[in-house]
Amino acid sequence: MSFETLGLAPGLLRALADNQYTTPTPIQAQAIPLVLAGHDVLGGAQTGTGKTAAFGLPLLQKLAELPKPQGLHRPRALILTPTRELAVQVSDNLRSYAKYLRLNVTALFGGVGMQPQIDAFRRGVDVLVACPGRLIDHLERGTCKLGEVQLLVLDEADRMLDMGFLPSIQRVMKHVPSQRQTLLFSATFEPRIKALALDFLKNPQQVQVAAQNTVVETIQHRAHPVDGNKKRDLLIQILAERHTEQVLVFGKTKHGCNRLAEQLEAAGLPALAIHGNKSQAARQKALNEFKSGKTRILVATDVAARGLDIPQLPLVINHDLPMVAEDYVHRIGRTGRNGASGEAISLVAPEEAHLLRQIQKLLGRDIVMDTVAGFAPSRAIRSDAKPFDNTPRAARPSRNRRPHGKPRKPEAHAHAHTGPKPVQREGQREGQREGQRGARQGERRGAR
Ligand code: AMP
Q1: Where are the extended beta strands (E) located within 157-242?
Q2: Residue 185 CB: number of other CB atoms within 10 A?
Q3: Residue 25 in contact with ligand 1 by CB distance below 6 A
Q4: CA–CA separation, 33 vs 325, rounded Å?
Q5: For a 10 Å CB count at each end of the chain, is N or C smaller?
Protein backbone atom coordinates (compact mmCIF):
# COMPACT_ATOMS: atom_id res chain seq x y z
CA MET A 1 0.00 0.00 0.00
CA SER A 2 1.37 3.44 -0.94
CA PHE A 3 0.11 7.00 -0.68
CA GLU A 4 -0.27 7.07 -4.49
CA THR A 5 -2.79 4.23 -4.39
CA LEU A 6 -4.86 6.17 -1.84
CA GLY A 7 -5.52 8.80 -4.48
CA LEU A 8 -3.53 11.69 -3.06
CA ALA A 9 -2.55 14.63 -5.27
CA PRO A 10 1.04 15.13 -6.52
CA GLY A 11 1.60 18.21 -4.30
CA LEU A 12 0.80 16.19 -1.21
CA LEU A 13 2.86 13.20 -2.35
CA ARG A 14 5.85 15.49 -2.78
CA ALA A 15 5.42 16.90 0.72
CA LEU A 16 5.09 13.37 2.14
CA ALA A 17 8.31 12.36 0.40
CA ASP A 18 9.99 15.44 1.94
CA ASN A 19 8.72 14.23 5.32
CA GLN A 20 10.09 10.76 4.52
CA TYR A 21 6.71 9.10 4.89
CA THR A 22 6.79 6.08 2.59
CA THR A 23 3.88 3.91 3.72
CA PRO A 24 0.49 4.95 5.07
CA THR A 25 -0.20 3.90 8.65
CA PRO A 26 -3.29 1.69 9.16
CA ILE A 27 -5.54 4.60 10.18
CA GLN A 28 -4.37 6.56 7.13
CA ALA A 29 -5.02 3.60 4.81
CA GLN A 30 -8.55 3.29 6.16
CA ALA A 31 -9.57 6.90 6.60
CA ILE A 32 -8.03 8.74 3.62
CA PRO A 33 -10.17 7.09 0.88
CA LEU A 34 -13.34 7.56 2.96
CA VAL A 35 -12.68 11.26 3.55
CA LEU A 36 -11.77 11.80 -0.11
CA ALA A 37 -15.05 10.12 -1.07
CA GLY A 38 -16.92 12.68 1.05
CA HIS A 39 -18.02 10.51 3.99
CA ASP A 40 -18.33 11.64 7.57
CA VAL A 41 -15.87 9.55 9.57
CA LEU A 42 -15.79 8.38 13.16
CA GLY A 43 -12.14 7.46 13.73
CA GLY A 44 -10.82 5.49 16.68
CA ALA A 45 -7.14 6.35 16.99
CA GLN A 46 -4.87 8.02 19.44
CA THR A 47 -1.75 10.13 19.06
CA GLY A 48 1.11 8.13 17.60
CA THR A 49 -1.01 6.30 15.03
CA GLY A 50 -0.64 8.95 12.33
CA LYS A 51 -4.20 10.20 12.81
CA THR A 52 -3.30 13.83 12.02
CA ALA A 53 -2.29 12.93 8.48
CA ALA A 54 -5.27 10.54 8.28
CA PHE A 55 -7.65 13.49 8.42
CA GLY A 56 -5.20 16.25 7.39
CA LEU A 57 -4.10 14.90 4.00
CA PRO A 58 -7.56 14.34 2.48
CA LEU A 59 -8.81 17.57 4.06
CA LEU A 60 -6.02 19.57 2.38
CA GLN A 61 -6.59 17.77 -0.90
CA LYS A 62 -10.30 18.62 -0.88
CA LEU A 63 -9.61 22.29 -0.17
CA ALA A 64 -6.93 22.44 -2.85
CA GLU A 65 -9.39 21.05 -5.42
CA LEU A 66 -11.87 23.86 -4.72
CA PRO A 67 -11.42 27.22 -6.46
CA LYS A 68 -9.19 29.41 -4.29
CA PRO A 69 -11.18 32.36 -2.94
CA GLN A 70 -9.70 35.79 -3.61
CA GLY A 71 -8.67 38.42 -1.04
CA LEU A 72 -10.06 38.08 2.44
CA HIS A 73 -11.16 34.54 2.79
CA ARG A 74 -12.67 32.80 5.72
CA PRO A 75 -11.75 29.35 7.06
CA ARG A 76 -13.07 26.52 4.92
CA ALA A 77 -11.83 23.83 7.28
CA LEU A 78 -11.97 23.91 11.07
CA ILE A 79 -10.12 21.50 13.35
CA LEU A 80 -11.02 21.66 17.04
CA THR A 81 -8.38 20.39 19.46
CA PRO A 82 -8.42 20.18 23.27
CA THR A 83 -5.08 21.83 24.05
CA ARG A 84 -2.82 24.57 22.81
CA GLU A 85 0.05 22.14 22.31
CA LEU A 86 -2.06 19.90 20.15
CA ALA A 87 -3.27 22.90 18.12
CA VAL A 88 0.37 23.87 17.47
CA GLN A 89 1.33 20.28 16.63
CA VAL A 90 -1.58 19.70 14.26
CA SER A 91 -1.11 23.04 12.51
CA ASP A 92 2.66 22.43 12.16
CA ASN A 93 1.99 19.02 10.62
CA LEU A 94 -0.65 20.37 8.26
CA ARG A 95 1.57 23.23 7.18
CA SER A 96 4.32 20.78 6.29
CA TYR A 97 1.87 18.66 4.25
CA ALA A 98 0.42 21.77 2.56
CA LYS A 99 3.71 23.34 1.58
CA TYR A 100 3.13 22.87 -2.19
CA LEU A 101 -0.58 23.68 -2.09
CA ARG A 102 -0.69 27.38 -1.22
CA LEU A 103 -3.14 26.90 1.59
CA ASN A 104 -2.90 28.93 4.77
CA VAL A 105 -3.04 27.00 8.05
CA THR A 106 -3.54 29.05 11.23
CA ALA A 107 -3.55 27.90 14.86
CA LEU A 108 -5.78 29.67 17.40
CA PHE A 109 -5.45 29.25 21.16
CA GLY A 110 -5.71 31.22 24.37
CA GLY A 111 -2.93 32.61 26.56
CA VAL A 112 -1.60 34.87 23.79
CA GLY A 113 -2.77 38.24 22.40
CA MET A 114 -5.95 38.46 20.32
CA GLN A 115 -4.64 41.08 17.87
CA PRO A 116 -2.16 38.91 15.93
CA GLN A 117 -4.96 36.37 15.53
CA ILE A 118 -7.35 39.06 14.27
CA ASP A 119 -4.65 40.17 11.81
CA ALA A 120 -4.28 36.57 10.60
CA PHE A 121 -8.03 36.42 9.90
CA ARG A 122 -7.71 39.67 7.93
CA ARG A 123 -4.99 38.14 5.77
CA GLY A 124 -7.16 35.10 5.04
CA VAL A 125 -7.23 31.60 6.50
CA ASP A 126 -7.95 28.30 4.75
CA VAL A 127 -7.55 25.86 7.61
CA LEU A 128 -8.17 26.94 11.20
CA VAL A 129 -6.86 24.71 14.00
CA ALA A 130 -8.45 26.02 17.18
CA CYS A 131 -9.03 25.38 20.86
CA PRO A 132 -12.71 25.90 21.66
CA GLY A 133 -12.31 28.66 24.32
CA ARG A 134 -10.37 31.16 22.22
CA LEU A 135 -12.44 30.38 19.15
CA ILE A 136 -15.59 31.32 21.06
CA ASP A 137 -13.95 34.60 22.15
CA HIS A 138 -13.40 35.44 18.46
CA LEU A 139 -16.86 34.30 17.41
CA GLU A 140 -18.46 36.50 20.07
CA ARG A 141 -16.38 39.52 19.06
CA GLY A 142 -17.22 38.89 15.44
CA THR A 143 -13.53 38.68 14.52
CA CYS A 144 -13.91 35.15 13.17
CA LYS A 145 -16.69 33.82 10.95
CA LEU A 146 -17.22 30.15 10.29
CA GLY A 147 -19.94 30.44 7.64
CA GLU A 148 -17.65 29.07 4.90
CA VAL A 149 -16.57 25.94 6.77
CA GLN A 150 -17.05 22.82 4.66
CA LEU A 151 -14.88 20.41 6.62
CA LEU A 152 -14.94 20.08 10.37
CA VAL A 153 -12.69 17.86 12.48
CA LEU A 154 -13.14 17.15 16.17
CA ASP A 155 -9.69 15.91 17.18
CA GLU A 156 -9.23 13.99 20.44
CA ALA A 157 -12.93 14.39 21.11
CA ASP A 158 -12.72 12.21 24.24
CA ARG A 159 -10.20 14.65 25.68
CA MET A 160 -12.34 17.63 24.82
CA LEU A 161 -15.23 16.07 26.72
CA ASP A 162 -12.93 15.22 29.67
CA MET A 163 -11.94 18.85 29.80
CA GLY A 164 -15.53 20.05 29.96
CA PHE A 165 -15.62 21.46 26.41
CA LEU A 166 -18.97 19.98 25.38
CA PRO A 167 -20.89 23.28 25.86
CA SER A 168 -18.15 25.11 23.95
CA ILE A 169 -18.29 22.59 21.08
CA GLN A 170 -22.07 22.98 20.95
CA ARG A 171 -21.67 26.75 20.76
CA VAL A 172 -19.12 26.54 17.96
CA MET A 173 -21.42 24.20 16.04
CA LYS A 174 -24.07 26.91 15.85
CA HIS A 175 -21.65 28.99 13.75
CA VAL A 176 -20.75 26.20 11.32
CA PRO A 177 -22.97 25.41 8.30
CA SER A 178 -24.95 22.19 8.63
CA GLN A 179 -23.97 21.29 5.05
CA ARG A 180 -20.45 20.10 5.73
CA GLN A 181 -18.28 17.00 6.08
CA THR A 182 -17.46 16.11 9.68
CA LEU A 183 -14.69 13.88 11.04
CA LEU A 184 -14.47 12.90 14.67
CA PHE A 185 -11.35 11.29 16.14
CA SER A 186 -11.20 9.83 19.60
CA ALA A 187 -9.02 7.27 21.40
CA THR A 188 -12.16 5.41 22.50
CA PHE A 189 -15.72 4.91 21.27
CA GLU A 190 -17.32 5.17 24.68
CA PRO A 191 -21.06 5.97 24.77
CA ARG A 192 -20.62 9.74 25.17
CA ILE A 193 -18.47 9.79 22.00
CA LYS A 194 -21.13 7.86 20.12
CA ALA A 195 -23.70 10.38 21.38
CA LEU A 196 -21.52 13.24 20.11
CA ALA A 197 -21.21 11.51 16.75
CA LEU A 198 -24.98 11.08 16.57
CA ASP A 199 -25.42 14.81 17.16
CA PHE A 200 -22.86 16.09 14.70
CA LEU A 201 -22.07 13.42 12.07
CA LYS A 202 -24.24 12.15 9.20
CA ASN A 203 -24.08 8.40 8.44
CA PRO A 204 -20.49 8.20 9.61
CA GLN A 205 -18.17 5.46 8.43
CA GLN A 206 -16.38 3.98 11.39
CA VAL A 207 -12.66 3.20 11.32
CA GLN A 208 -10.55 2.06 14.21
CA VAL A 209 -6.93 1.03 14.44
CA ALA A 210 -6.61 -0.47 17.89
CA ALA A 211 -9.16 -1.97 20.17
CA GLN A 212 -10.23 0.28 22.97
CA ASN A 213 -7.44 0.92 25.44
CA THR A 214 -5.01 -1.54 23.97
CA VAL A 215 -1.40 -0.89 24.68
CA VAL A 216 1.52 -1.50 22.40
CA GLU A 217 2.96 -4.96 23.08
CA THR A 218 6.53 -3.73 22.90
CA ILE A 219 6.15 -1.70 26.10
CA GLN A 220 7.53 -3.18 29.32
CA HIS A 221 5.59 -2.20 32.41
CA ARG A 222 7.18 -2.19 35.84
CA ALA A 223 6.06 -0.90 39.20
CA HIS A 224 8.34 -0.07 42.11
CA PRO A 225 6.56 -0.17 45.45
CA VAL A 226 7.80 2.74 47.56
CA ASP A 227 6.55 5.00 50.33
CA GLY A 228 5.21 8.32 49.09
CA ASN A 229 7.89 10.30 50.92
CA LYS A 230 10.69 8.25 49.29
CA LYS A 231 9.45 8.59 45.73
CA ARG A 232 11.57 11.58 44.92
CA ASP A 233 14.80 9.85 46.04
CA LEU A 234 13.92 6.74 44.07
CA LEU A 235 13.14 8.84 41.00
CA ILE A 236 16.50 10.58 41.31
CA GLN A 237 18.26 7.22 41.58
CA ILE A 238 16.50 5.88 38.46
CA LEU A 239 17.14 9.04 36.46
CA ALA A 240 20.80 9.09 37.48
CA GLU A 241 21.21 5.42 36.48
CA ARG A 242 19.52 6.00 33.14
CA HIS A 243 21.43 9.16 32.44
CA THR A 244 21.47 8.90 28.67
CA GLU A 245 17.78 8.52 28.06
CA GLN A 246 15.02 11.02 27.48
CA VAL A 247 12.34 10.64 30.07
CA LEU A 248 8.82 11.97 30.47
CA VAL A 249 7.85 12.01 34.15
CA PHE A 250 4.20 12.31 35.11
CA GLY A 251 3.07 14.04 38.27
CA LYS A 252 -0.39 14.54 39.68
CA THR A 253 -0.62 18.28 40.24
CA LYS A 254 0.78 21.42 38.63
CA HIS A 255 2.44 22.45 41.88
CA GLY A 256 3.85 18.94 42.41
CA CYS A 257 5.35 18.93 38.90
CA ASN A 258 6.99 22.31 39.43
CA ARG A 259 8.45 21.23 42.75
CA LEU A 260 9.66 17.94 41.34
CA ALA A 261 11.41 19.65 38.40
CA GLU A 262 13.12 22.01 40.86
CA GLN A 263 14.20 19.12 43.09
CA LEU A 264 15.59 17.19 40.14
CA GLU A 265 17.45 20.28 39.03
CA ALA A 266 18.89 20.65 42.55
CA ALA A 267 20.02 17.01 42.38
CA GLY A 268 21.98 17.74 39.21
CA LEU A 269 19.33 16.42 36.83
CA PRO A 270 18.16 19.35 34.69
CA ALA A 271 14.42 19.08 34.15
CA LEU A 272 11.59 21.26 32.93
CA ALA A 273 7.96 21.23 34.05
CA ILE A 274 5.01 21.63 31.73
CA HIS A 275 1.51 22.22 33.03
CA GLY A 276 -1.58 24.34 32.62
CA ASN A 277 -0.40 27.24 34.83
CA LYS A 278 2.56 28.00 32.61
CA SER A 279 2.29 30.59 29.91
CA GLN A 280 1.89 29.32 26.39
CA ALA A 281 5.38 30.59 25.53
CA ALA A 282 6.91 28.76 28.50
CA ARG A 283 5.10 25.52 27.64
CA GLN A 284 6.16 25.67 24.03
CA LYS A 285 9.76 26.50 24.96
CA ALA A 286 9.92 23.55 27.38
CA LEU A 287 8.41 21.25 24.78
CA ASN A 288 10.81 22.42 22.06
CA GLU A 289 13.81 21.97 24.34
CA PHE A 290 12.65 18.47 25.22
CA LYS A 291 11.91 17.52 21.63
CA SER A 292 15.28 18.81 20.44
CA GLY A 293 17.03 16.84 23.19
CA LYS A 294 18.37 19.98 24.89
CA THR A 295 16.46 18.99 28.02
CA ARG A 296 16.42 15.32 28.89
CA ILE A 297 13.71 15.28 31.54
CA LEU A 298 10.22 16.72 31.19
CA VAL A 299 7.85 16.63 34.16
CA ALA A 300 4.24 16.95 33.09
CA THR A 301 0.64 16.75 34.23
CA ASP A 302 -1.77 14.63 32.21
CA VAL A 303 -3.46 17.65 30.71
CA ALA A 304 -0.25 19.36 29.62
CA ALA A 305 1.13 16.19 28.07
CA ARG A 306 -2.10 15.31 26.31
CA GLY A 307 -1.58 14.55 22.67
CA LEU A 308 2.05 15.64 22.64
CA ASP A 309 3.89 14.03 19.80
CA ILE A 310 7.30 13.14 21.13
CA PRO A 311 8.51 10.36 18.88
CA GLN A 312 10.41 7.34 20.13
CA LEU A 313 10.52 8.12 23.81
CA PRO A 314 12.30 5.19 25.50
CA LEU A 315 11.00 5.75 29.01
CA VAL A 316 7.95 7.12 30.78
CA ILE A 317 7.95 7.29 34.57
CA ASN A 318 4.80 7.73 36.62
CA HIS A 319 5.95 9.52 39.76
CA ASP A 320 2.27 9.41 40.73
CA LEU A 321 -0.24 7.00 39.31
CA PRO A 322 -3.08 8.65 37.40
CA MET A 323 -6.42 8.93 39.19
CA VAL A 324 -8.14 7.45 36.16
CA ALA A 325 -6.78 4.19 34.71
CA GLU A 326 -7.35 5.32 31.09
CA ASP A 327 -4.81 8.09 31.63
CA TYR A 328 -2.14 5.42 32.18
CA VAL A 329 -2.75 4.25 28.63
CA HIS A 330 -2.50 7.80 27.32
CA ARG A 331 0.65 8.47 29.31
CA ILE A 332 2.54 5.43 28.13
CA GLY A 333 1.26 5.95 24.60
CA ARG A 334 4.29 8.20 24.32
CA THR A 335 6.70 5.29 24.40
CA GLY A 336 7.02 2.19 22.24
CA ARG A 337 5.85 3.98 19.09
CA ASN A 338 6.18 2.52 15.65
CA GLY A 339 7.35 -0.84 17.00
CA ALA A 340 10.19 0.68 19.06
CA SER A 341 10.62 -0.85 22.48
CA GLY A 342 9.58 1.31 25.39
CA GLU A 343 9.41 1.16 29.12
CA ALA A 344 6.85 2.42 31.59
CA ILE A 345 7.92 2.59 35.23
CA SER A 346 5.44 3.47 37.97
CA LEU A 347 6.37 4.46 41.51
CA VAL A 348 3.52 3.10 43.60
CA ALA A 349 2.88 4.07 47.20
CA PRO A 350 0.76 1.73 49.36
CA GLU A 351 -2.13 4.22 49.19
CA GLU A 352 -2.10 3.90 45.40
CA ALA A 353 -2.55 0.12 45.34
CA HIS A 354 -6.20 0.46 44.27
CA LEU A 355 -5.15 2.65 41.31
CA LEU A 356 -2.61 0.05 40.24
CA ARG A 357 -5.29 -2.64 40.36
CA GLN A 358 -7.57 -0.54 38.15
CA ILE A 359 -4.75 -0.11 35.64
CA GLN A 360 -4.02 -3.84 35.58
CA LYS A 361 -7.68 -4.56 35.06
CA LEU A 362 -7.81 -2.14 32.14
CA LEU A 363 -4.63 -3.54 30.58
CA GLY A 364 -5.81 -7.09 31.21
CA ARG A 365 -2.42 -8.04 32.58
CA ASP A 366 -0.36 -7.85 35.74
CA ILE A 367 2.39 -5.30 36.10
CA VAL A 368 5.61 -6.71 37.52
CA MET A 369 6.23 -5.46 41.05
CA ASP A 370 9.91 -4.87 41.61
CA THR A 371 11.10 -3.56 44.97
CA VAL A 372 14.29 -1.51 44.67
CA ALA A 373 16.86 -2.20 47.40
CA GLY A 374 16.63 0.46 50.08
CA PHE A 375 13.16 1.58 48.99
CA ALA A 376 10.88 -1.16 50.32
CA PRO A 377 7.68 0.49 51.49
CA SER A 378 6.65 0.38 55.12
CA ARG A 379 3.44 -1.38 54.05
CA ALA A 380 3.44 -4.15 51.47
CA ILE A 381 1.44 -3.64 48.30
CA ARG A 382 -0.57 -6.49 46.93
CA SER A 383 -1.42 -5.42 43.45
CA ASP A 384 -3.89 -8.21 42.81
CA ALA A 385 -5.99 -7.87 45.92
CA LYS A 386 -7.43 -5.27 48.26
CA PRO A 387 -4.88 -3.00 49.93
CA PHE A 388 -3.38 -5.21 52.50
CA ASP A 389 -1.80 -4.53 55.80
CA ASN A 390 1.16 -6.77 56.57
CA THR A 391 2.12 -5.26 59.89
CA PRO A 392 1.91 -7.79 62.71
CA ARG A 393 -1.57 -7.99 64.12
CA ALA A 394 -0.43 -6.88 67.55
CA ALA A 395 1.09 -3.71 66.12
CA ARG A 396 -2.06 -2.69 64.27
CA PRO A 397 -4.23 0.01 65.75
CA SER A 398 -7.22 -1.72 67.27
CA ARG A 399 -10.71 -0.43 66.86
CA ASN A 400 -11.32 -1.31 70.46
CA ARG A 401 -8.23 0.40 71.81
CA ARG A 402 -9.43 3.93 71.18
CA PRO A 403 -8.59 6.55 73.79
CA HIS A 404 -10.76 6.21 76.79
CA GLY A 405 -14.09 7.96 76.62
CA LYS A 406 -13.57 9.23 73.02
CA PRO A 407 -16.43 8.32 70.68
CA ARG A 408 -15.27 6.43 67.62
CA LYS A 409 -15.27 8.57 64.54
CA PRO A 410 -16.99 6.86 61.65
CA GLU A 411 -14.03 7.41 59.29
CA ALA A 412 -11.38 6.31 61.83
CA HIS A 413 -11.43 2.68 60.74
CA ALA A 414 -12.22 3.24 57.12
CA HIS A 415 -8.90 4.68 55.98
CA ALA A 416 -7.45 1.38 54.83
CA HIS A 417 -10.15 0.98 52.21
CA THR A 418 -10.45 4.47 50.93
CA GLY A 419 -8.16 5.77 48.25
CA PRO A 420 -6.89 9.32 48.13
CA LYS A 421 -9.59 11.95 48.20
CA PRO A 422 -11.12 12.21 44.74
CA VAL A 423 -9.37 15.24 43.35
CA GLN A 424 -10.76 17.27 40.53
CA ARG A 425 -8.57 16.69 37.52
CA GLU A 426 -6.62 19.57 36.08
CA GLY A 427 -8.40 19.33 32.78
CA GLN A 428 -11.81 19.48 34.34
CA ARG A 429 -10.84 22.64 36.15
CA GLU A 430 -9.36 24.15 32.98
CA GLY A 431 -12.44 23.24 31.01
CA GLN A 432 -14.75 24.65 33.64
CA ARG A 433 -12.75 27.84 33.87
CA GLU A 434 -12.91 28.11 30.11
CA GLY A 435 -16.71 27.73 30.22
CA GLN A 436 -17.03 30.19 33.08
CA ARG A 437 -14.84 32.71 31.32
CA GLY A 438 -16.99 32.47 28.23
CA ALA A 439 -20.10 32.93 30.33
CA ARG A 440 -18.59 35.91 32.15
CA GLN A 441 -17.65 37.57 28.91
CA GLY A 442 -21.15 37.02 27.67
CA GLU A 443 -22.54 38.68 30.80
CA ARG A 444 -20.21 41.67 30.48
CA ARG A 445 -21.23 42.20 26.90
CA GLY A 446 -24.89 41.90 27.85
CA ALA A 447 -24.51 44.62 30.51
CA ARG A 448 -22.89 47.08 28.15
P1 AMP B 1 0.04 11.52 15.00
O2 AMP B 1 -0.59 10.26 15.50
O3 AMP B 1 -0.72 12.16 13.93
O4 AMP B 1 0.38 12.47 16.13
O5 AMP B 1 1.44 11.10 14.32
C6 AMP B 1 2.48 10.51 15.04
C7 AMP B 1 3.84 10.66 14.35
O8 AMP B 1 3.93 9.80 13.22
C9 AMP B 1 4.11 12.06 13.84
O10 AMP B 1 5.45 12.38 14.19
C11 AMP B 1 3.99 11.97 12.35
O12 AMP B 1 4.84 12.88 11.70
C13 AMP B 1 4.41 10.53 12.09
N14 AMP B 1 3.76 9.92 10.91
C15 AMP B 1 2.45 10.03 10.56
N16 AMP B 1 2.19 9.31 9.46
C17 AMP B 1 3.35 8.73 9.11
C18 AMP B 1 3.73 7.84 8.04
N19 AMP B 1 2.86 7.41 7.16
N20 AMP B 1 5.02 7.44 7.98
C21 AMP B 1 5.92 7.87 8.90
N22 AMP B 1 5.63 8.69 9.93
C23 AMP B 1 4.37 9.11 10.04
Answers
A1: 181-186, 205-208, 219-225
A2: 28
A3: yes
A4: 34
A5: C
Ligand 1 centre to CA of 49 (Å) is: 7
Assess whether the C-beta atom of 309 lies below 6 angstroms from ligand 1: yes
How many Cβ atoms are within 10 Å of 281's Cβ, its own excluded? 10
Residues belonging to the chain = 448
| Residue 360, ligand 1, Cβ within 6 A | no
Does 388 contact ligand 1 (Cβ within 6 A)?
no
Q: Is 49 in the pocket of ligand 1 (CB under 6 A)?
A: yes
Task: Choose which residue among 309, 313, 335 to substitute to test ligand 1 binding: the one with the highest number of ligand atoms within 8 A of its C-beta.
Answer: 309
Residue 63 carries which DSSP code?
Answer: H
Residue 156 vs residue 426, higher pLDDT: 156
Kindly report, residue by residue over 89-100, the tens digit of the pLDDT: 999 999 999 999
pTM, 2 dp: 0.61
Residue type, 39: H
Closest ligand 1 atom to residue 23 Cα is: 19
**Please, which residues have CB within 8 angstroms of residue 92's CB and are 6 or more apart in sequence?**
none
Interval between CA 223 and ligand 1 midpoint (Å): 30
Minimum CA distance residue for ligand 1 atom 8:
50
pLDDT tens digits along 23-56: 898 899 999 999 999 999 999 987 778 899 999 9
Atom of ligand 1 nearest to the CA of 3: 19
CB 280 within 8 A of CB 328: no
**For helices 325-332 and 353-363, what crossing angle results, to 10°?**
70
| Whole-angstrom distance, CA of residue 235 vs CA of residue 318 | 9
Q: CA–CA distance from 356 to each of 236, 340, 345, 369, 377 (Å)?
A: 22, 25, 12, 10, 15
Decide if 317 contacts 247 (C-beta within 8 A).
yes
- Which sign does the torsion angle of CA 91, 57, 182, 86 carry? negative
- Residue 370 CA to residue 356 CA, distance in Å, equals 14
Dist CA 286 CA 290 (whole Å): 6
Atom of ligand 1 nearest to the CA of 51: 3
Nearest CA to ligand 1 atom 13: 50
Residue pair 272/297 in contact (Cβ under 8 Å)? The answer is yes
Q: Ligand 1 centroid vs 88 CA: distance in angstroms? A: 15
Report the alpha-carbon distance of residue 34 to residue 29 in Å, rounded. Answer: 9
Q: How far is the CA of 166 from the centre of ligand 1 (A)?
A: 28
For the chain, domains (ranges, CATH) are 4-208 (3.40.50.300), 219-369 (3.40.50.300)
- Tell me the CA–centroid distance for residue 76 and ligand 1, in Å: 24
